[in-house]
Write a structure and sequence with these properties.
CATH class of the largest domain: Alpha Beta
Number of helices: 12
Protein name: Glycosyltransferase
Mean pLDDT: 94
Low-confidence stretches: none
Shape: globular
EC number: 2.4.-.-
InterPro entries: Glyco_trans_2-like
Organism: Butyricicoccus intestinisimiae
Structural class: alpha/beta
GO molecular function: glycosyltransferase activity
Strand content: 15-25%
Largest sheet: 10 strands, mixed
CATH superfamily of the largest domain: Spore Coat Polysaccharide Biosynthesis Protein SpsA, Chain A
Number of domains: 2
Length: 325
């Protein structure tokens, strides 16, 4: 590595009710081949043995710093860690996941070689049961411009929403706070980080192992909190419209189909009255949006036209045909 290897990476790990997984997670971080690390464990008022486990790790490795705080949720814990981080580079790990030994060495090298501000690696989804693992991210290596990266995050093509498989220059992102109390916090956050970057490196080196467990936030049954994704994308669309006008139609289309999906999930998982309230909320948001064009895609054009006429009926038809589920 060149002289940039003096750069310290701050790794922020929120910890809450992950007793069976925590040691594997932290072990994968302390054993990184890139060793100039600041490991910030944020105990978010965990009611189990996690606080003691964090303290025990800090006794074993001087790079580990533990913050104990009252429970405030994932976003609050990340913000707390960001506020005290001292590294020139920053990243996040969820405490039930684990990482490849070379993840940060690899991402760091990509940032140096490409002169990029953010670097992202490959992600493998793994299950606690016998479900075979699968790759979440696209396979390929690229350097994206800001505009290409913004398009990728809207399309969820070369960039996905999660923050935890990426390495960031701290000075670009430290003041972007995660929204406290919201689900889908990464959707609120990631496009803002992308807009701060001039270049983003994409690598298919599998560095991050994303555990699918039954008790996690994303493993829970559908609830009204999922509508936070709509709020996030409405905010993002306003931002795109102002700052990336060439991507406005793409952003509108993504928001429109997200509303259709949320309507379908509400009809499948909620009682009749709650589902009606969700549909009304979605219709209110779509009423402010011009109908996007889907040049060359007849199916998308038809679904958008139908949902513009009757969202409830469209969601019911798609559920019956098992489309988009």
């Amino acid at each position: 590595m060149n002289s940039m290897s003096a750069m310290k990476i701050s790794i922020i790990i929120p910890v809450y009710k992950v007793e069976p997984y925590l040691d594997k997670c932290i072990s994968s971080i302390v054993n990184q081949t890139y060793t100039n690390l600041e490991i910030i464990l944020v105990d978010d008022g965990s009611p189990d043995q996690c606080p003691q486990m964090c303290d025990a790790w800090a006794e074993k490795d001087a790079r580990i710093r533990v913050i104990h705080k009252e429970n405030g949720g994932l976003s609050d814990a990340r913000n707390t860690g960001m506020a005290v981080a001292t590294g020139e580079l920053m990243t996040f790990v969820d405490s039930d996941d684990w990482i490849d030994p070379d993840m940060y060495k690899h991402l760091y090298q990509r940032m140096v070689e490409d002169h990029s501000d953010i670097a992202a690696c490959g992600v493998q989804m793994v299950w606690e049961d016998e479900t075979p693992p699968r790759i979440l991210t696209r396979m390929g290596n690229h350097v994206l411009s800001k505009e290409e990266a913004m398009q990728a995050i809207i399309e969820e093509s070369w960039l996905k929403q999660p923050v935890w498989y990426k390495l960031y220059k701290t000075n670009l992102i430290k003041d972007i706070l995660f929204p406290v109390g919201k689900y889908h916090e990464d959707v609120f956050w990631s496009y803002q980080a992308v807009d701060r970057a001039n270049k983003i490196s994409i690598s298919d080196h599998i560095g991050y192992y994303y555990l699918q467990r039954n008790g996690s936030i994303m493993g829970e049954e559908y609830s009204l909190k999922r509508l936070d994704a709509i709020e996030a994308k409405v905010q993002r669309h306003a931002y795109i419209k102002e700052n990336f006008p060439a991507l406005e139609n793409l952003s509108a289309k993504d928001l429109w189909f997200t509303c259709i999906y949320q309507g379908q999930m509400a009809l499948r998982n909620l009682d009749g009255e709650s589902a009606k309230r969700v549909i009304a909320y979605l219709e209110k948001n779509l009423a402010r949006m011009p109908l996007p064009s889907c040049t060359g895609n007849l199916k998308e054009t038809v679904w958008l036209a139908m949902s513009n006429t009757n969202l409830l009926k469209t969601c019911k038809i798609r559920n019956t045909l098992r489309i988009g589920l």
